[in-house]
Amino acid sequence: MKRAVFRTSSSGDLVQSGASPRRDLAPSPRFVAACLLTFALALAAACGSGDDPYAAFRNGHYERAFKSFLRRADNGDSAAINFVGVHYYLGLGVPRDFAQAAVWFERAARAANADAQRNLGVLYLRGWGVPRDNVTAYAWLFQAVSQGNGRAREYLEMVEHQITPNQTMQARAWIADQLQLPGEPRLKARPRP
User: Fold this and answer.
1) Cβ count near 140 (within 10 Å)
2) How confident is the model at residue 51 (pLDDT cuts 50, 70, 90)?
3) Helix or strand or coil: residue 97?
4) What end-to-end distance do the CA atoms of the chain give, in Å?
5) Of 56 and 9, which is predicted with more confidence?
6) Residues 6+ apart with CB under 8 A from 71
7) Of residues 35 and 56, more confidently modeled
8) How far is CA 53 from CA 23, 81, 83, 96, in A?
9) Which helix (DSSP H) or strand (DSSP E) does residue 30 occupy?
10) What is the DSSP string of 111-156?
11) Rounded distance, CA 159 to CA 118, Å?
C-alpha cells in the first residue's frame, strides 16, 4: 500500500506530492468557523444554559434553581410557581416554611397546575402551614385527580373516608366555584369540616 505524501504549495494550499494542487484538502476558514460554532452550541446544550432551573434542581444547585424558578414564576409559569412552593416545602435553597409553600402551591393550583393542587391538598390533609381541613384537602385532591394526577388518588382515597358524602358534594361545588369550572354547581363559602 502506497502512502500519500503531502506538501504545501506556493499559494499555501495543502497538496499531495505528484498531484495537481487541490484546495479541498485544506479546510476553508468558513468551514473552520462553522465547526467551531457547532462545537460551541453542542457544548452549551450539554452543559445547560445556566438558567435551566430543573437541571440546577436535579444537580443540587437549589439556590440557583430557586432564583430561576422565581423569575419564571413572575412570568406566570404555573410549574415554576409550584416549584417555588416545593423549595419552601422541602427547605431547599430557602428556609423550610410550610405556610409559604401553601401560598405558592395555592397560586399554582388556581392556575390549574395539577401537581400544585395535589401538594396543596396534602398540606390541608396534614395541617402543615394551613389549618387541618379534610374537606378542603378533598377539594384540591379531587381536582388534581380530575386533571389526571395519579399520585393524588391515594391521598384522595384516604381523605374521602374521613368526610361525609354531603361534605364531598360541598367540596366539589366549592372547588368548581373557586376555579370557575363549567357544569358544576356554585358554592360561595368554603365548605365546613
Assistant:
1) 30
2) confident
3) coil
4) 90
5) 56
6) 51, 80
7) 56
8) 47, 12, 9, 19
9) helix 29-47
10) TT-HHHHHHHHHHHHHTSSS---HHHHHHHHHHHHHTT-THHHHHH
11) 12
Q: Is the pLDDT of residue 110 over 70?
A: yes
Domains and CATH numbers, the chain: 1-47 (no CATH), 66-179 (1.25.40.10)
CB 105 within 8 A of CB 116: yes
- Per 3-state DSSP, the chain is made up of helix, strand and coil in percentages (nearest 5) of 60, 5, 35
Question: How do residues 69-99 score in pLDDT, each as one tens digit?
Answer: 999 999 999 999 999 999 999 999 999 999 9
Read off the C-alpha cell for 108: 399554582
CA–CA gap between residue 156 and residue 114 (Å, rounded): 13
What pLDDT, on a 0 to 100 scale, did the predictor assign at position 59? 92
